[in-house]
Amino acid sequence: MTTPTIIHVEDVSKRFVMHKDKSIKERILNFSRARKHQDDFWALKDISLDITMGTTVGLVGHNGSGKSTLLKVVGGIIQPTTGNVSRRGRMAALLELGAGFHPDLTGRENVYLNSAILGLSRSETDRYFDEIVDFSGIEDFIDTQVKFYSSGMYVRLAFAVAVHVDPDLLLVDEVLAVGDEPFQRKCMAKIAQFQAEGRTIVLVSHSAEQVGALCDRVVVLEHGEMLHDGDPAQALRVLRGSFSDEAVRHEEKLEAEGRPEHHVVEVPQVTVTASDQDTDGIIAPRADIHVSVQYEVLETIEPWLIGVALETAVGNVVYRMTTRELGETLPLQPGTYELNVTFKNHNLGGGSYSVSVGLAYESGATILVVNPAATFEVADYGIGRGAIRLDVESSVKRIAAARAAGIS
Amino acid sequence: MSLAQARDREQRVARENLKPVGQSTHFVTGTWASLKDVWGSRELTSLLVRRELKARYKDSSLGIVWSLVRPLAQLLIYYFAIGQILGVARSIPSFAIFVFVGLTTWGLFVEIVQGGTTSITNNSGLIKKIYLPREIFPLASVGGALFNFGVQLIILVLATIVAGQIPLDLNLLYAPLSLTVLIFFATGFGILLAGLNVYLRDIQHLVEVAIMVLFWASPIVYSFSFVHDKLQGNWLEQLYLANPITLAVLGMQRAFWVAGTTESTSQNWPDDLAIRLWIALGISIVILWIGQRIFSRIQGNFAQEL
């Protein structure tokens, strides 16, 4: 049986018209100029998307790229200007924790109200109530008005309600990063359980790490258009690319305005080579990796340093160091130089990595960050997965006999 | 276990049809879908009503008594100012009961319309974050208003018992009919104004003024006989009687103001009150329907306008 589609988005566009005046007086006064006073922009442009059941889809993009709008359109909160969205199954939207909590009501009353808002019937809430309170960990305060709650207690209770709703489709907007660390771990475990139970999750996040860890499909949006749809690792690369595109655009804009961004140091080129590479450039295990950073000092500067970091495809830093830690003193006079760093007998696991380079004064101010400056790929080793490789040996031996028959 | 669960879920969802998201804006076919939506969230609506009532009187020691203080204060003012000082009470027997009937009925209308008008803007936090059939917010304020009305009605009945004018005859049947007219009419406007108020916040101020004016357009502190004596059934009187609120107030007076039937000789009601009420009911239902359809059409942009 093929997996059924749970969300079908077809050619969806959304235009926002921004009225700058609201009162009758202003409308009459500005009637002739009303057109000018309308600013519209397209938050979404011809988005088509089919999401099958059981997948976890991440929506990423810059601020204002339309990802939250898309989530709201899927959730039915905003109607698209053109195109249509259809959906099946039971949905719960977690766009804001505790939306609908009333400060004057007690925790208990708010649990019932909030679960009704999220679509639970009263008898279902009765059934889950103890579990919800248990999950939130605020048993002692459940009969206190929520206006007396600390903000942590507030979101914990809200999240507890939200995850006990039994949805087929869960829409999540930037709400997973709440509470202290044990609670966050609880939340992540709950999400993993949701995934195992075949629920579909669509989440908006700024955290590349979170998206990389949770999603099996990522959609990158930029200015309302879909840049990428599919593999998470690649999506994050696209996203990062679009971040640097943005930086380039910013620079071009400044240049067009006649005030180019002024750098005292430029990094025209960063190259990665290795002592053992195949024809595709894939680096063999245990080879020496050379990173060379070519840089040009344009004018005499104060003491400064270069930082080099190796990151995984989803943006986790594997290793980073600075020239100060290496004991290198960088030249302060204008000229073109090259910094060579060699990682001997590297222990990186298979996969693709990126190198990012950061330049800063010793006083701490940033001069320039190039991310990603270069990428490289490491061959798989065969045993195990991960960002680093450890030498592994194993054995199995018997410690004691089975305690009783029949227990396996 | 979770694998089997996942498969169950998949099969259950696969059996459902893909449904378009959002309300249908079609004028006729959308009505049914809207009704189903609202019916489906009746439990939530009742919770919202309770939330409003609980939150309103939380932390006040008199609590629900406050919902009586306002109409009782109004009653006292009108009883003395208009009844005694201006002398209206002389031609209206049991003036206190008469005024209280009018005031409670009118209060129900005001509360539904005013509460409804601001219901969407007051719940903007919810509307921007979660999709619910938005009609439930004005409907929740109807529920709250009905609760307050119920409390006042109990007081009214107690008062008639104390006064020895227990309304126990066929005229009492006017009460449910009048209330239905009033509720449909007020809800229709409540829903419509709730939607419009999102786009034009002036509506809520306009409503306040309109309510102040309309108060005098219904026989609440004066009886219908004053109007009838002056106008003698001409077209102005017909216009006066075309107002569903006026009809509802008259119906309620007919039901609960026993002295108006037994002691008064003047004409306190138009002859064909029942027929007028039935017509008004029909019109009110149409108004409610049109109001809901307009609301449904404009509600798609609520989240971004709030």
Structure description:
The complex is a heterodimer of chains A (408) and B (306). Chain A has helices at residues 24-29, 34-37, 67-75, 107-117, 122-136, 151-164, 181-196, 208-214, 232-256, 323-326; strands at 5-19, 38-52, 56-61, 82-87, 91-94, 169-173, 200-204, 217-222, 225-230, 265-274, 289-297, 304-312, 317-322, 335-343, 351-361, 366-378. Chain A is α/β, with parallel strands linked by helices and 408 residues long. Chain A folds into 2 domains: 53-238, 3-Layer(aba) Sandwich (Rossmann fold), CATH 3.40.50.300; 264-378, abc- transporter (atp binding component) like domain (Coagulation Factor XIII, Chain A, domain 1). In chain A, the strands form 4 sheets. Chain A has a 6-stranded mixed β-sheet with strand order 5-6-7-3-8-9, with helices on both faces. Chain A is globular, with a radius of gyration of 27 Å. With 306 residues, chain B is mostly helical. Chain B is 74% helix and 1% strand. Chain B has helices at 2-15, 29-40, 42-57, 66-85, 95-122, 124-129, 136-162, 174-199, 202-215, 224-231, 235-241, 244-256, 258-262, 273-298, 302-305; one strand at residues 19-20. The A-B interface holds A 1, 3-6, 8, 16, 22-24, 53-54, 72-79, 84-89, 93, 95-96, 99-100, 102, 104-105, 109, 112-113, 116-118, 121-122, 145, 168, 193, 196-199 and B 2, 5-7, 9-10, 12-14, 16-22, 43-44, 47-48, 51, 54-55, 58-59, 125-132, 200-202, 300-301, 303-304.
